[in-house]
Design the sequence.
């Protein structure tokens, strides 16, 4: 689904006509702030659009904002984001030069006592939000895209894609010159075994080091 068509669905007026300049990330961010393309906006604080410089050559795509991101309005600022920051530092990648975003831009959650717990977005929500992700990629034209977790990988590489099978491999794609998928850092937060957690973290760092080499 093209951004043009999608923005029509979402009732936006930023759509670029054939031959017209592409919408900028700023214009997309402003338009997405009032998106009602699926029901997730109803229970979330705000749209959490991608963040990072418009000149970023590396785009990281996660699943959806979490509780902290929903409150802050920024992606990857919660516990998983801090883990990602550490991995980027160890891989020698400056996060301030990276564009980070999610496949779904609103926080989906269920109430458990006083806590709002993450709920996995459904295929209809991922599909409804896909035009925003497509438009971000078109506006940024990154050299490298890294999908973090199955939702991002399947949103961009197809539903048959399995991170478990293709993790860390460079995937031929028209999305960007280099595309890779790995696990989402939040999965490390759920790993109770310390040794396994550390091994998985080291693996993410090694994958990001390969990405760093591509950015030279
Ligand atoms: S999740 Fe995406 S499609 Fe759904 S309302 Fe939010 S921005 Fe729109």
Sequence:
């Amino acid at each position: 689904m093209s951004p043009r068509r999608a923005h029509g669905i979402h009732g936006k007026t930023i759509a670029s006509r054939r031959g017209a300049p592409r919408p900028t990330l700023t214009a997309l961010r402003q338009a997405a702030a009032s998106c009602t393309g699926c029901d997730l906006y109803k229970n979330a604080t705000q749209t959490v659009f991608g963040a990072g410089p418009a000149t970023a050559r590396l785009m990281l795509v996660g699943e959806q904002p979490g509780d902290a991101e929903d409150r802050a309005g920024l992606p990857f600022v919660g516990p998983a984001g801090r883990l990602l920051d550490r991995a980027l530092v160890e891989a020698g990648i400056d996060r301030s030069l990276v564009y980070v975003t999610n496949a779904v831009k609103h926080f989906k959650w269920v109430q458990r006592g006083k806590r709002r717990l993450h709920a996995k977005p459904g295929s209809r929500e991922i599909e409804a939000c896909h035009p925003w992700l497509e438009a971000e990629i078109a506006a940024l034209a990154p050299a490298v895209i890294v999908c973090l977790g199955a939702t991002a990988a399947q949103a961009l590489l197809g539903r048959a894609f399995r991170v478990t099978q293709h993790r860390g491999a460079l995937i031929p794609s028209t999305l960007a010159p280099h595309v890779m998928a790995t696990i989402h850092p939040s999965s490390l937060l759920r790993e109770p075994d310390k040794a396994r957690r550390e091994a998985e973290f080291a693996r993410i760092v090694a994958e990001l080091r390969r990405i760093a080499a591509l950015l030279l």
